[in-house]
Structure formats: C-alpha cells, structure tokens
Amino acid sequence: MTRVLFAGGGTGGHLYPGLAIARALVRLRPDVRPFFVGAQRGIERDVLPGTEFPHLLLDLHPLYRPRVWSNWKTLVGAVRSWRRLGALAREERPRVVVGTGGYASGLALAYAWAHGIPYLLQEQNSHPGLTMRLFARRAREVYLGFPEAGRMLPAGGATALLDSGNPIEPPPSPRPDRLAARAAWELPADGRTLLVFGGSQGAVPINDAVAGWVKARRLPDELSVLWVTGKGSYDRYAPLASPRVRIRPYVSPMASAYAAADLAIARAGAMGTAEMCAWGIPAILVPLPTAAADHQTANARALADAGAAVLVPQRELDADRLDAVVRGLLDDPARLDALAAGASRRARPDAAERIATRIAAMLG
C-alpha cells in the first residue's frame, strides 16, 4: 500500500480539487491510499466524513490579520497539530504530500519540508494564496489552475510549474443535448438560456440585479433564465418564477444546468470558472470583491484578457448594466461565439487525470 497525504481545505475551493485528484489517482493506481488532513472548522468537517477517504481534522486556525491578538489560537493550535501530524506520519509513512491550499494545508506542508517528505502543490487561482507562495520554492511540482499564477510563484530551480488546469468533474462524452436539457428544466426550446448562479450560498448582488431586471419585465424576448439563488435567498426570489424564468435554491451536480445554458452570469471562483470553460459557456463574471487578495477579480481579468469572459465589477452591477451586457451579447452572435471559443481554449477538463498521472509517475 502506498500512502499519499492530501492537505487542504477551509473552503470547498481548496478541498474539492484534492478529492478530484485523489479519486483520479486511485483509478490509475489502486495500490494508492489517499489520506486527508484538514481543519476542524473548515468545510472538510462536513464533507470528508461522507467520502471514502480516511482523514484527520486538526485544531488549525488562519492568521487573524484584523484581530492580531487572536493569533494565540493559531500558535497553540499549530503546536498541538504538529504533534498529531508527527504521530500520523509515523503510522502512515506517506510517500508524498499534496497541498491544495488554504490555511488547512500550511502545517502539513511545513511538516513535509522539515522531514524531507516530497510535496506537490495545486494552486487553483490566478493570484496564488499565501500558503502557495510560501511553499512553492521547495515543491517538486506545482499544478496551476491558471497559467498566470506562475508569474507570482517563487519556484526553485528544481520546481516544475505545470499548466494543468483545475481538477473538476468533466462534461460527459457525448455532451447532453441542449434541447433535451432545456426540456428537463421546462424551459422554452427556442432562443437562448442564461444561467445565473453564485455558489451554494448564492450571491446577493447578482440576485438583486437579476430580480430588478425580471421585475421590470426587460428580459429580451428570445431569452429564458435558469436562476440558482442559493439556499438562503430562495424564498425571497421564488415569487419571480415564470415559464421563462426557472428558479431553484441549489443545483448539484451542475451538469444539467450547464448543458442547458448558452451563457452565464456568475462569480469568478476558480472551480466555477473552470467548469464553465470546460462546457464552453461564455460567462459574465462578477467577482466577489472581498475574496482574499481580491483573487476573484484576478481570475475574471485573466479570462477576460483571454477572450473567454466579460468582467463586470460588483460595484457597477445593477439591472441596467445587466440588461446592456446581455443584450449586447445576444445582438452580436459573433462575439458570443468568440467568447465560447475562448472559454473552450482555456478548458482543461482532464486536469485531475493529468495531475494524477504525474503523481503516479513520481511514486514509481
């Protein structure tokens, strides 16, 4: 049995890539046994118990920048967790550590560095996080969700930076029929469909702009809307549903929604944008301005510069701006097609398999 330790979490954007890589690795090498390390207060607390993988949740804390006096928790948790990591390493003897970012991965990567255990990194965003910037120099390989991130990583001479893309669930082959997907959502067969989503919790600024647009009855005649509000906001927006506006609190998996969509308006998180690119969906991206280091704006700008998306800052988003952007795209089919082609060029639907193949080769 070959043990590979995966470290990352805090948010789904840091946890789910690790799960995708681990599953791809097991498909390639059934002798490999992934083990996950995360934080007791991260999303991994709820997700990992429902997976097939053994795991250890540690008393890890982020750096408290505004409330520096709270960093005693970070220090005490790190000391306790270091001991538990030592016991885990002696028992499991990992051959390699895979860090997928977030504060939940930092201590495990530090332990690997201190004890000579090879480690690899997977960076999801175009603006690398603090953990990735700290540990990139000593990594064997760094797998980039956005190639632009490579410019900001102080990789060492022996570190390989690879444009792998982000590990996602790829679209099925063959692709679902778009008309059949619309029929499943009870959407009109003609015209085009706009997908609206903002993650599992939704995005209130996006929802409010769409609500104002719908209430004003300004939707273009040829457009229908599949609107995923987020669970906490659904009751507020549900009364706006109509035969041309289908509203749901949450959709998982998203494949059926992507299959029905001709364009989308969404946040600019790494995994959501990777999925839209894999499906070749032109996107209107409204980055979350409070994301760490404003990385969503960096993601959106990278895709806009690559001709794969339209960037609309949240401060500029309202019903009028939304109407103008959507109508501009619908009235210019050539531009819409160019954005779809740009998204497809950025797609890396086989990212998990590519990364797993590299890890398998390293394991020998």
What does this structure look like?
Helix content is 41%, strand content 16%. It is built from 14 helices and 13 strands. Helix 10 crosses helix 13. It is an alpha/beta fold and 364 residues long.
For the report, how would you describe the main beta sheet?
Answer: 7 strands, parallel
Which percent range describes the beta-strand content?
Answer: 15-25%
User: Could you spell the SSE succession in H and E letters?
Assistant: EHEHEHEHEHEEHEHEHEHEHEHEHHH
CATH architecture of the largest domain: 3-Layer(aba) Sandwich
| Helix content class | 40-55%
Number of separate strands: 13
- C-alpha termini separation: 13 Å
The shape, in one word, is elongated
Tell me the CATH superfamily of the largest domain.
Glycogen Phosphorylase B
Mean pLDDT figure: 91
The Rg value, from CA coordinates, equals 21 Å
**What is the overall number of helices?**
14
